[in-house]
Structure formats: structure tokens, C-alpha cells
Amino acid sequence: MFYFEGAAALELMDKLEILADAAKYDAACTSSGLDRAGRPGTTGNTTFAGCCHTFSADGRCVSLLKVLMTNVCAYDCAYCVNRRSNDVPRAAFTPRELCELTMGFYRRNYIEGLFLSSAVLLDPDYTTERMVEALRLLREEYRFGGYIHAKAIPGADPRLTYRLGLLADRLSVNIELPSAGSLALLAPDKKKEGIFAPMGQIRDNITASRGELKLYRHAPRFAPAGQSTQMIVGATPESDRQILTLTQGLYDKYRLKRVFYSAYMPVSNSPLLPAPQGFQPPLLREHRLYQADWLLRYYHFRAEEILDEDSPDLDPRLDPKCTWALRHLEFFPVEVNRADYEALLRVPGIGVRSARRILTARRMGPLTFSALKTLGVVLKRAQYFLTCSGRMLEGLRVNPDGLLRHLVALEKPALAGGEPEQLSLFHGEGSA
Questions:
Q1: Is the N end or the C end of the chain the one with fewer CB atoms within 10 Å?
Q2: Superfamily of 10-274 according to CATH
Q3: In the chain, where the domains are located
Q4: 182-226 pLDDT, tens per residue?
Q5: Angle at CA 150, nearest 5°, toward 152 and 99?
Q6: Order of strands, edge to edge, in the sheet holding 65-68?
């Protein structure tokens, strides 16, 4: 069993504190997205419900060790706390140290997996080689079968990225900034093409791996939980429309599992970035983007439907689905006993599960408003956009101004809570 003892352990804990804190700005980790049972002679498994640093799909709060291989970086990205020119404590794990930490935390039930990223030490190839060696030791020598999410380094040799994908459950390549212009301005060492190239490789390798598994049961699995990316929101002037359009393109072209949005945290005094004095991270904007992203992935919306040239930004007062409904009142009311699945998904207050329940339940007879509530429909929102057997809810009067006020009032309690915090392994400022 692994213990933190003596001077060497103190040094290792110092590294852990530095590199875990440096990793907190990367939001691109989530539930595992796959099932893998434990095998004899191995340690750990992973479930579809997930291994993440927050709440999983089934409501469990689970955790992973979220850490950098190193925060020593050859790049000088203005928005990054680990940039070359920033005077911060530096550290680097050896592959063996990272394995010992991961196994020690796992055996104590502190974590359920590993999220491994890294600054660019010397060059992308050298950095990726160290990450590959760490994951190889974990999988082959320590027999770790838990969830691993690894960050692919743009510019690394495709053969190294392929080896990384054979060892990890999920890969991600961070876009960071939503436009090529912003990337050139704030991250001159990075190029748009260099970021999209590994995304395309990962997509193709995942497709090839799934094809091989259909033919050969024991074929190696490449990133079975797919790939994801992250964009920083609020550091540059791009509109929500530009961000969602890019997101739509990423889902269409690279078949990403998730796009993550990270509200910009002021970590630099660069004149190219918002002044840190008095700057508030755009957390509400981040929240609305996640809601819009949900519409893209599960509700069959397109980016151009949610926002257009006349309305390039999301309304902070309302969730994007309600905003769309108010702009398209001609679509409503929807007759719940006859509408198809796509139409039901457009109704505020009806989710994917409740829409499917409606389709099943109405086979037995006409549905009423009381029945809809039983099926999980949020009638506080849906009542204004539905009819049951051709009738609206008794006593209900709808006009655009009154509807807007009502929907805004429903949002206020949810937005009144305290600001969210990034979880930390350590006590002190910013810790949970």
C-alpha cells in the first residue's frame, strides 16, 4: 500500500499540490461513457454512469484525480496560468510517481479514475511520450482497469497519439479559443490546423477500432468513450452564435461526445485580455451555453435555429429553449395527443424522457394536463405551449408580454444560488 512518508513523500505532495491546482482550469472531463467490468488480476473498473469530478448521470458524486504531468511549458499563451512567462512554482511528475499517486488514491477510495493533462514540456512529442509511459505503467504493470481521460497534445506525432488512445478511455484536444483570429492573437504558438488534425485522427481511429471490434472480439479498443474538447468563454469578443456554430461543426465533422465551456478566469495582466480588476467570470453565460449545447445534442436543434444575426447572444434571463419558443409562437400550441416526437421536444418543460413517455402513454387513451404532470412534464413552463384534446389549461390566458414575465420569474430562484466553485484537493482559497 502507498504511503506519504518522509522527505521524498513531502516532495511528492508538493508536486501534487502544484500540479493539481494547475489543472483546475481544464473543464473537459465528464462521465466515462462506457462500461468495463473488473477482470481477475486487475484493479478497478468503469461504468457508463460515470467517473467525473462532479455529479454523474445517475446522481452520484464521483471523483477522479485531475492533475497535470507537468506545468513547465514551452508555450506562452496569454490566457493560461502555466504560460512560459508566468512566474509560478513549477513541477513535473515522473511516470512512476504519477502511477503511485493514482493507485494510492484509488485504493483509499478517494478517486474512481484519472484525468491527465500536461503543459508542453520541451515539445509535443516528448510530453506525449511521458504521458504514454505513465498510462502504460498504469495499465500493464499496475493492472489499473479504472477510467482514464487523457489530453492529446496538438503537434505530437500521430503514432504517439494513437498509443495514447489505446491506453485511455477518452481523449480530448482543447480548442481553447473559438476563432482562428483569437488563437493567433493570444496563443501564437498554436495553430487551428494543428488542433483539428489530431481531432480528425482520433475520429478516424475510433471509427476503425469499432469496425475491427465487430470482426475481432479481442481487437484493441481506441478511446472507447470518444473524444471531447473545451473552449474558453469571455476572454475574447466572439458572440454566442459564433461559439455555437463552431460547436455544431465540431459535432458534425469530428463526432465529439462533448464540447465543454469554461468561463474565463483572469490569470494574466495582458492588455489583450479583460482587465482582472473587477472582472467577473461569465458563469451565467457559461451556463446558458451548456443549455444550448444540450439542445444541439439531445433536442435536435441546429445552431442557426437557436441564434441568428439579429440575436447573436443568448438571453441571460431565460434558458435557450424558452427563448426559442417565445420567438416562434406561431409553432404553438402543440397538441400533445397528436404531435410527433420532434414537435414535443420543442415544448419548454418537456424533456427527452417525458416526450418518450407521452408517446407511450397516449396509446392507451387521450392525455390530460394532470396526466402530463405524472409523466414528468414541467407544467409551470409547458402549460403555455400545449393543448390536450384541443383545449388549453382551464383559466389560462396567454399573451407574449405576460408569458415573458412568467418565464423570467420561474428562472430567478434557480439563478439566486451562490456562485459555483472549482473543487480542490486542498484546503484554502478556492477549495471545497
A1: N
A2: Aldolase class I (3.20.20.70)
A3: 10-274, 320-414
A4: 888 888 888 888 899 999 999 999 999 999 988 988 899 999 989
A5: 130
A6: 65-68, 113-117, 147-151, 170-172, 227-233, 258-263
